[in-house]
Design goal:
The protein is α/β, with parallel strands linked by helices. It folds into 2 domains: about 200 residues, Glycogen Phosphorylase B (Rossmann fold, 3-Layer(aba) Sandwich), CATH 3.40.50.2000; about 210 residues, Rossmann fold (3-Layer(aba) Sandwich). The protein has 17 helices and 14 strands. The strands form 2 sheets. Strands 3-2-1-4-5-6-7 form a 7-stranded parallel β-sheet, with helices on both faces. The chain has a 7-stranded parallel β-sheet with strand order 10-11-9-8-12-13-14, with helices on both faces. Helix 5 links the parallel strand 6 and strand 7. Helix 6 crosses helix 11.
Length: about 425
């Protein structure tokens, strides 16, 4: 057999400068694949754009998908097919990765992802789809999209293990089509202690509760503020004075666009904090968070990966009061666990999966609370602080298996299994192939 020439990997996803969790996820996945350069030779990105953003290297203008134009999606598919034909002459295998989210598919009710997958399949180009949303009670359109992926895609990748049951039970997807690859986490935490992070941020004398990430309704932060306020009433004044709730992150770009730069949700949260007597402060710059008289700090800025890691490391408790029980992924939760921080989270699907053992029983790696319940937040914070050492140890033990380098390795493994027969994989003699 001619010597294997490596993989040419093609992503259809959002990409910087478009700001969203999937763009960040894709960026980390690509960086992880770059570590396996002996196997992954080329990576191309087809960013899904709808605002005329300016994309820089490695994206070329012709690669950009106009989200609202179905022909633009098919143009991307044709470019991938063309690469497939050229790469065959070098014995290089072309594969496509579709990062699916309903809201990215045209107007949110189109089926462009499947149109691309169908075209690729027809030309013999292997493709996998990563499911960033999977609903247990889908409408007809949502169900049909997922069911068509079984026909058009070689594998359906889930981030949350329990989604396998949903795919089989609700969508009738065959188990052989489903692959679980966890959400990756950064592997930079060994270079920064909690003390270092607090000193860098000006929080060295503070006990820190934090909620981080792009701000929009559905994050449940209003419940977090009220629950935090009630929690302060249950602790001794000496501890109360040293405690602060940091709410950090930029307003979601779609919200900014809708309200022409305003953020009614953030304004509502600030007013709630005022009414609770928490003396909130709003900042937008890069100054230290040294505000001794303020119990709530709103830090309105985009969090780079380095800044996100710093804030998580500085946090004694991460509070995720999300309100959507079907949320199947959360970079903040994955990062919190991977960085060894105690997390208190509502019982959304991803949290239920991460905080339980193989039998579905809570394993002490995090604290789960009810939705939209201030008293539950009080109890969750109490449990988090009382058991934070045990929680951090168990969270870290889980998190170390979710590093981006491990995720990159699993993706490369998947590429081999999707594109080669067992005998061909054996001939490549890769020691890490499962």
């Amino acid at each position: 057999m001619q010597q294997f020439g490596g993989f040419s990997v093609n992503f259809i996803s959002t990409w910087y400068p478009r700001l969203c969790g999937i763009a960040s996820f894709t960026g980390h996945t690509i960086a992880a694949l770059d570590l396996y350069e002996d196997h992954v030779k080329h990576i191309k990105i087809h960013p899904i754009d709808k605002d005329g953003l300016i994309y820089r290297f490695p994206v070329k203008e012709k690669h950009i998908i106009n989200q609202m134009d179905s022909s633009s999606w098919l143009d991307a598919a044709e470019m991938i097919v063309g690469r497939h034909q050229r790469n065959k002459t070098q014995n290089m295998v072309t594969i496509a990765v579709l990062e699916h989210e309903y809201g990215l598919d045209g107007n949110g009710r189109d089926n462009n992802f499947n149109a691309v997958a169908r075209r690729l399949k027809a030309e013999g180009v292997p493709n996998i789809v990563v499911l960033h949303t999977l609903l247990e009670n889908p409408d007809d359109y949502q169900k049909e999209v997922i069911q068509q992926f079984e026909e058009n895609c070689d594998k359906l990748v889930i981030i949350t293990p329990s989604c396998k049951d949903i795919l089989k039970r609700v969508y009738n997807i065959g188990e052989e089509k489903i692959v679980h690859i966890p959400h990756g986490i950064p592997e930079t935490h060994k270079r920064m202690t909690q003390r270092d992070a607090k000193e860098k941020l000006g929080l060295e004398k503070k006990v820190v509760v934090s909620t981080l990430g792009l701000i929009s309704e559905g994050k449940g932060i209003e419940y977090g503020i009220k629950g935090f306020s009630k929690f302060l009433e249950t602790i001794k004044p000496a501890f109360r004075e040293n405690m602060v709730y940091v709410i950090a992150g930029q307003t979601h770009p779609e919200v900014q666009k809708k309200y022409k730069g305003r953020d009614p949700y953030r304004e509502k949260m600030f007013k709630t904090a005022e009414e609770e007597g928490l003396n909130p402060v709003m900042i937008t710059g890069d100054e230290k968070l040294s505000f001794p008289d303020n119990r709530v700090i709103f830090w309105n800025r985009y969090l780079t990966d380095n800044k996100l890691v710093e804030l998580i490391r500085a946090s004694d408790i991460m509070l995720l009061p999300y309100t959507n029980p079907e949320q199947v992924s959360s970079g903040n939760l994955a990062y919190g666990m991977g960085l060894g921080t105690a997390v208190v989270a509502t019982k959304f699907r991803y949290a239920r999966d991460l905080f339980t053992d193989e039998n579905g029983n809570p394993d002490g790696s995090g604290v789960m609370i009810d939705f939209k319940d201030e008293d539950a937040i009080v109890e969750g914070l109490r449990k988090g602080f009382e058991n934070h050492v045990e929680i951090e140890v168990k969270a870290y033990q889980k998190g170390v298996t979710m590093g981006w380098t491990v995720v990159g390795k699993q993706m490369v493994n998947l590429f081999y299994h999707v594109t080669m027969e067992p005998a061909e994989i054996e001939s490549v003699k890769l020691p890490f192939i499962d």
